[in-house]
Design goal:
alpha+beta; 5 strands; five-stranded antiparallel beta sheet; single chain; elongated; Alpha-Beta Plaits
Length: 177
């Protein structure tokens, strides 16, 4: 169904103001997939994404290319996924969530085109690799866990140093006597 020029301009303005400024945006397609998406699956996919803080928009390819000129070839329906609240996300969050959804219940319905991260386009394989990297919260948790484990060893290390020092002083005093 054709859309009016005004609607296209509104879509471009929305994408430029709300999507192009995101830290990361993931693009999916239904072209070349095993099973086409029915309306029930489409609704389920969007609801699951929305519950995880991700907005899904289906946008015409010509409009998508205007907003993201670094993307070369688009075919089929293009789904654009971006964070509802970009202030609470990092560059990894959207790819991580969408790839997880896309490889779960919907693995036969979508193919990953790529992602735009801080204005740079990542192809499909790089987007999948990016989704495997720990996000900011996960990285902070790993660092905190490591620091906690190190801090638990500090009293033992201090005690060991002082006991070794005492033994050394004792041995030196025996040798002098």
């Amino acid at each position: 169904m054709a859309i009016t020029r005004i609607k296209k301009e509104e879509t471009v303005a929305f994408l430029n103001n709300n999507v192009a400024t995101q830290k990361s945006v993931v693009l999916l397609t239904t072209k070349g997939v095993d099973k086409s998406l029915n309306s029930e699956q489409d609704t389920s996919f969007r609801k699951q994404a929305r519950s995880l803080g991700i907005v899904i928009k289906v946008v015409k390819n010509t409009i998508t290319k205007k907003v993201f000129p670094t993307i070369s070839k688009l075919e089929g329906q293009t789904y654009i996924a971006f964070a509802q609240d970009s202030s609470n996300t990092d560059e990894i969050t959207v790819p991580k969530i969408i790839i997880k959804l896309g490889t779960g219940d919907f693995k036969e319905n979508f193919a990953v085109i790529g992602a735009v991260v801080n204005g740079e386009f990542y192809n499909s394989s790089d987007t999948i690799k990016l989704s495997l990297v720990p996000n900011k919260k996960e990285s902070m948790a790993m660092v905190a866990g490591t620091l906690k484990a190190l801090m638990a060893k500090v009293p033992t290390l201090v005690k060991e140093v002082s006991s070794k020092l005492a033994r050394s002083i004792n041995e030196v005093s025996k040798q002098k006597a």
